[in-house]
């Protein structure tokens, strides 16, 4: 670690070495490139900040045991089923802890790109459970899609994505 002369920023030499491959030591250019890199990761995760942070900690801490989850089946509202516009409904998936370890406490289902979450109880290895969310269909007919992902209390995403493709028909 190193304090830069005349700088009020504490620099990690390893980080600076990684940025040196950009071919410049100009502070403004480095900041610009870092902003582009951050925007790229945020775009790739639909501006969900937890995903790149979770990916960073997963990469930097390979000894962390990441939970496993597999999608089993749609319990309610399967792919291609129609829902009337502007209607309340419940979407339920059946999931399984496909790993060898129990899930840690505080796991939840997180709607990617939104702030919607549903708490999910910890599952034992190979245990199967249903996860349900309450939704309201859009008022305009059409095809809509969303995605949910399991997430630990520390923001680490894991397992199969849970997709919600809906056809909202004419009322």
UniProtKB/TrEMBL annotation:
GO terms for biological process: macroautophagy. GO terms for cellular component: phagophore assembly site. Residues 76-162 form the Nbr1 FW domain. InterPro entries: Ig-like_fold, Nbr1_FW. GO terms for molecular function: ubiquitin binding. It comes from the Eukaryota. This is Nbr1 FW domain-containing protein.
């Amino acid at each position: 670690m190193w304090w830069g002369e005349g700088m009020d920023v504490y620099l990690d030499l390893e980080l600076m070495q990684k940025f040196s491959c950009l071919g410049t030591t100009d502070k403004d250019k480095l900041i610009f490139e870092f902003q582009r890199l951050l925007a790229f990761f945020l775009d790739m995760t639909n501006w969900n900040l937890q995903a790149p942070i979770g990916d960073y900690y997963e990469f930097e801490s390979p000894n962390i045991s990441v939970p496993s989850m597999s999608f089993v089946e749609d319990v309610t509202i399967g792919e291609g089923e129609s829902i009337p516009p502007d209607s309340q409904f419940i979407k339920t998936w059946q999931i399984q802890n496909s790993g060898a370890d129990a899930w840690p406490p505080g796991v939840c289902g997180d709607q990617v790109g939104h702030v919607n979450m549903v708490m999910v109880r910890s599952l034992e290895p190979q245990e199967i459970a249903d996860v349900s969310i309450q939704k309201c269909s859009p008022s305009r007919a059409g095809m809509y899609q969303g995605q949910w992902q399991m997430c630990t209390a520390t923001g680490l995403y894991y397992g199969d994505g849970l997709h919600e493709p809906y056809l909202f028909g004419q009322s």
